[in-house]
Amino acid sequence: MKVIKKTFKYVSIVISALIFVLAIITVLLSVQAKKENKMMSFFGYSYSVVASPSMEPEIMTKEIIVIKKMDFDSYLEKAKVNEDVLVYYSNTYKRFIVHELYEIQEEGLLLKGVNNDSPDIELVTKDNFVGKVVMHGGAWFGNILLGSRFIIVFVLLIFLVFVILSEVLKVMLKKETKNPKLSKTEDEKIRQEILEEIEREMKQ
Residue 61 contacts by C-beta under 8 Å, 6 or more apart in sequence? Predict the structure, then answer.
């Protein structure tokens, strides 16, 4: 039991430290990315929450999208019109836009929201290209994460929940240590003593 308790203690400390560090990194990256008009990125992938219905019904409003960051020239070699959903930064609207590849032109890529009547007014080039959407879903979760302050709150909540669970488990282990269960050998010994006592009573 002591070994298990020590192991649990060390594992709890390590995991708590990792979650805390991850929370700090997430907050810093989020703030830095927002200042530079960029998307927060982890290992070549970014995420965002769709804020408009321009891609409905393919991608619903408030859905979370996962974007794979790609080199613009490399992407052109395998681009698929009317299939790929791309993300770019609009210098006109000063925000990121998620639309489907509509046409490949010599000057750049023309995108269009599947729910829009006309294509976008600006082309996507290597200067404003972000990447390709590789996954989307979870509109209910996206509603929570809509806005950087909610990201911070969410990460901190995860950390808080983990700390609470760790403390609860520690208390449970402590109680179990104070009230250990009888081993199988001890249990059999007690039973044998009871049987012997009964036999003595019957002989008297």
Answer: 50, 51, 52, 53, 139
pLDDT in tens, the chain (204 residues): 555 666 766 677 777 677 667 666 666 666 666 666 677 677 788 888 888 999 999 999 888 888 999 999 999 999 999 999 999 999 999 899 999 999 999 999 999 999 999 999 999 999 999 999 998 887 655 555 555 555 555 555 565 556 556 666 666 666 555 555 545 566 566 667 766 766 665 555
Class of domain 39-146: mainly beta
Structure tokens at 31: 């703030």
Place of tokens 């020239």: 73
Structure-block tokens of residue 149: 């302050």
Residue pair 126/89 in contact (Cβ under 8 Å)? The answer is: no
Give the containing element (helix H, strand E) for 30.
Answer: helix 2-35
SS3 assignment, position 99: strand
Which residues of the chain form CATH 2.10.109.10?
39-146
Q: Phi/psi of residue 122, each to 5°?
A: -125, 150
**How far, in Å, CA of 152 to CA of 28, rounded?**
10
Residue-wise over 14-26: b if at least 16 C-beta within 10 A, else e?
eeeeebeeebeeb
Six-digit token string for 140: 């209910």
Which amino acid is it at 73?
A: D
